[in-house]
Design goal:
The protein is mainly β and 385 residues long. Helices cover 2% and strands 44% of the residues. A 7-stranded antiparallel β-sheet has the order 5-6-9-14-11-12-15, with no helix packed on it. Strand 18 and strand 19 form a beta hairpin.
């Protein structure tokens, strides 16, 4: 306590726990809860999966699949294939994880093949780390991992703007057992981090690394090179169809100590994910309306759709035109499948949608955009890093 205010101060309510009081009441507790907004990684608990919970036959090309904000990346094309799944098999305190299930083995990995799970962090959110300055902050990466095989795998932290990387190994000590791994990265005074909406950091978890991607600097910052992805790996996750690899509880935070994972509400995590990707699903039974339109001619109607503000103007993808329909007035309500649908004017938080039908609209009247009641319909808004 302070000498001037004996009912305000710091106390120790339990083991490994520090409490803060003011006016005789506890206001904050460190240890059993966490400081807000510490985790720089989005969807680290693997709870959000807007694209769906499973994607099969992966391994031929990079992209985002299943769990939001976690990307499969490949250089070179190996013969290994796998299924990526949001799985309800997390350690205590985590409902979900990301599962890599090898379905076609690549036991003899070509030198030019490199496969990994990656998450990308926006540079605009990392300015407080002061990279490129003597005050650059130390970071701690922690995550839970499980694998059906033991061995050593790699994690690479890459500064995109400064083209700098730091590689470290971690070891799977026991099969089919959740283990928490902690890796510490000191601040990089020689790096750089632009204040923009591009990639600030990329974090790569190696799945399989050919010889061209091994042998580089480990345990310190260095100029990025291909040989830094898999240095020291002796485990090939895609080398055997019996191998499964799981990850969850991913947290990157300032400081040299891994603190308790910062659990956000599903709503908070979803909205953070939607800055980069949002799917407007209309897969319920019946013809679900999603926008009002103004008829521009006898065949076209123009409407507006809002979405969460994106990192940049998104790429908008529709399911087939005929999965959408217009409901309009023509001596009574009439519905007609669209023959074309597009987004002619795209902004960071709204877009126009132009729908075309064969005929029947009245210029200046209103129509309603709907999904066709018999189809699976969605619209994707993607501004991924």
């Amino acid at each position: 306590t302070t000498t001037g205010d004996l009912n305000t101060g710091v106390y120790f309510p339990a083991a490994d726990t520090v409490g803060v009081t003011a006016g005789g009441e506890e206001k904050w507790r460190f240890g059993s809860n966490t400081l807000p907004s510490r985790n720089l990684v989005t969807n680290g608990a693997m709870n959000v999966s807007q694209r769906g919970t499973s994607d099969t036959g992966l391994g031929g090309s990079s992209g985002y699949f299943a769990n939001d904000r976690f990307r499969y990346g490949t250089e070179g094309v190996g013969t290994g294939r796998f299924t990526l799944t949001q799985t309800a098999d997390g350690p205590v305190g985590f409902a979900n994880c990301l599962k890599v299930d090898c379905t076609t083995a690549d036991g003899t990995l070509a030198a030019g093949v490199n496969q990994s799970i990656e998450t990308r962090l926006e540079a605009r959110d990392l300015q407080h780390l002061a990279y490129g300055n003597a005050a650059a902050k130390t970071l701690t990466l922690s995550f839970y991992v499980k694998c059906t095989s033991t061995g050593t795998l790699s994690v690479l932290l890459r500064q995109q703007d400064g083209n700098r990387s730091w590689h470290q190994n971690y070891t799977i000590n026991a099969t089919d057992t959740w283990e928490q791994k902690t890796l510490v990265f000191t601040g990089d005074a020689s790096g750089s981090m632009d204040d923009d909406n591009g990639i600030g950091f990329s974090i790569y978890w190696s799945l399989a690394a050919g010889s061209n991607f091994k042998g580089g600097t480990s345990g310190s910052w260095a100029s990025h090179g291909n040989t830094m992805y898999g240095t020291g790996d002796d485990l090939n996750v895609l080398g055997n169809t019996a191998t499964n690899w799981f990850i969850t509880g991913v947290q990157l935070e300032v400081g040299g100590i891994a603190t308790d994972f910062e659990h956000l509400t599903f709503e908070e995590e979803l909205r953070k994910c939607q800055r980069y990707y949002e799917r407007l699903n209309m897969n319920n039974t019946g013809s679900q309306a999603f926008a009002v339109a103004l008829n521009q001619s006898t065949t076209q109607a123009l409407g507006i759709v809002d979405y969460v503000t994106k990192r940049t103007h998104p790429t908008i993808t529709f399911t087939a035109a005929a999965t959408f329909e217009l409901l309009y007035n023509s001596s009574g309500l009439v519905q007609a499948d669209c023959t074309a649908i597009s987004a002619p004017q795209i902004g960071e938080n709204t877009t126009s949608i132009l729908a075309t039908i064969s005929s029947g609209l009245v210029l200046g009247e209103a129509s309603i955009f709907r999904r066709d009641g018999t189809d699976t319909t969605y619209v994707e808004f993607s501004a991924e890093l």
